[in-house]
Sequence to fold (758 residues):
Amino acid sequence: MAHDQMNGSQILIKALENQGVDVIFGYPGGAVLPLYDALFQQNKIRHILVRHEAGAVHAAEGYARSNGRVGVVLVTSGPGATNAVTGLTDALMDSIPVVCFAGQVPTHLIGNDAFQEADTTGITRPCTKHNYLVKDVGELARTIHEAFHVARSGRPGPVVIDLPKDVALATGPYVPASKVKHKSYNPRVKGDLALIKEAVELMATAKRPIFYCGGGVINSGPAASQLLTELVRLTGYPCTLTAMGLGAFPASDGQFLGMLGMHGTYEANLAMHGCDVMINIGARFDDRITGRLADFSPGSKKIHVDIDPSSINKNVAIDIGIVGDVAHVLEDMIKVWKSTQAKPDGKALKGWWKEIDGWRGRDCLLYAHSDKVIKPQYAIQRLHEATKGRDDVYITTEVGQHQMWAAQYYGFEKPNRWMTSGGLGTMGYGLPAAMGVQVAHPDALVIDIAGEASLLMNIQEMSTIAQYRLPVKVFILNNEYMGMVRQWQELMHGSRYSESRMEAMPDFVKLAEAFGAVGLRATKPSEVDGVIADMIAADGAVIADIRVDQAENCFPMIPSGAAHNEMLLGPEDHTEQPSSEEGMVLV
Amino acid sequence: MTFQPETERQHTISVLVDNEAGVLARVIGLFSGRGYNIESLTVAEVDPRESLSRITIVTSGTPMIIEQIKAQLERLVPVHNVNDLTLSGPHVERELALVKVRGTGDGRVESLRIADIFRARVLDSSTESFVFEIVGDTGKLDAFINLMEPLGLVDVARTGVAAIARGPGEI
Fold:
């Protein structure tokens, strides 16, 4: 059929429309000129011109995480593709659906060390969920549709399509998404009902249960968070969330114990250590969660629900492993719980809550307030206070102390409101991610809680923010140090602050102004509220430079190589427990 | 499921994949990236109509590691199925080796006699060398090659293990 014939670039645009794509983040170059020409000649898909390809992928991640759709990236060959590698790895580690199109030199030049040639499929193979090199225009439409299917289904992740320039110019047929069959990749979404029944039975007999939930709940869609909330309330059991899972269960709920793990709360970690039944929903027993594996929750039976079979029994031996999509499994669990009229052991549960309340009484997030110097925790608390109750607040972060303080002190009530680089820990993530969130939610209040060191890693994106008039707010906890590096040097390397001090920082107020944004600064605790109010009230982008206590450390902390019951609660703790040799090796 | 992490065991895993560019690199990259062993690996197209290849991997690890390897393989998009032949019942394994031995006199005669015992065939012969073809399981090939060592072993080329389940069922 003649009307279905078009060139590769037009096929790409048509396939993107077919997939419901409304925005792509990209940067042009020689190998993608035909694609940019096709973009120019249409009006349905918006292109956001970033200032660096890493920014493009992080922006697509922010977009995807805040609205649950696939983020789309377009970069050129060679350096365009290699610059995207960090973002792709980040999306792989945090299971974020992204499709990245990379230009490639024409097929007859592949392998010739041509100008701006890189082995993009070779380089990105270990950092994507899957990748393709399209050598035949006849395969292009099918490949694009399959790429979106792979990116969004099962455990989501990044997919790269490497597209040689001659393929983008060649003429071929368009195949709509509805005509594409996926032969080998069809992940399981429904959990095994027999195992779900077994799991519910175990849950009902628990004396010291805990729900431990993670990013899988967020990835499964907003319904999963509602179902989780329903199940947790139905059972009356305590619930803790990973850094990736914040928002999956309301932070203000009495059954919420806070985040767990290395900088998790005392009550969450001790409850994990002392529980008899652990119900893991969509979390992966990351080393930041488990601490020393040999002593991780030694007395518990473990239930693990995950869409990725390779997550089950990877780090921790599981008693009941259920492969399936979290929302589907939770729905079945609730049904079974109700139909079997499960009655938990009320007396045991009361005792368990009493024990938990005892741990809560330690008030592990308490810090020494000061009226002379701004405590970073205070700044986050005030920010939370000023934005509480609003449904349209989205927080991104960079990586380091400020990220953990944000996770600890900013209470998330709903999913998809919190975007942070969890697995890879990518400094420079927050600003471009905030940009992507703002593109997805133009009227929302989007705040990048940043550290001054991380922010400088992708500061060029302020220019993109200016170009598209995105009202992103950057809230810097500026301590003039790579704070987390400095903290580890203090605790484990005899306070020798090797290269962790950030000297010669820019004047962030002037920097904001240089990019056409508003610059604000707070140096005293009494100024914090005013700066936050001005930041929120401003129509456009803002950089708020909050000068915080340089010596503050992030507590509680499980030192690396330690177990959950060996937490450091505050500055007084660490002198008694020098970190072990094994712990020193770990990151 | 309970694991005894200390017991390592050898497993033969059969993987059916799309015969497309890069699929072998994906499998090998998975093993090297995650630090798993490959003791033997063979790959060839087995279904030209559907364009499918079979990869047979011999690896070793604790039950937890083997389970991980299989789950990680199953995650790869071009992988159709993964079968642990070691766990799924009786199966047969074969490997082929080409063995070159150089020598004259008694050594030469002895190599031919041993080849006869092992049912190896002579593929090529010169006045001072033989190329033997031997088929069998890995242990038999190892034994043959060891015996050839003192008799003037020059080179060995091995195919790696191909394996298939016994009985009428599909792998």
Remarks:
- Chain A has a mean pLDDT of 96.
- Residues 42 and 116 of chain A are 28 Å apart (CA to CA).
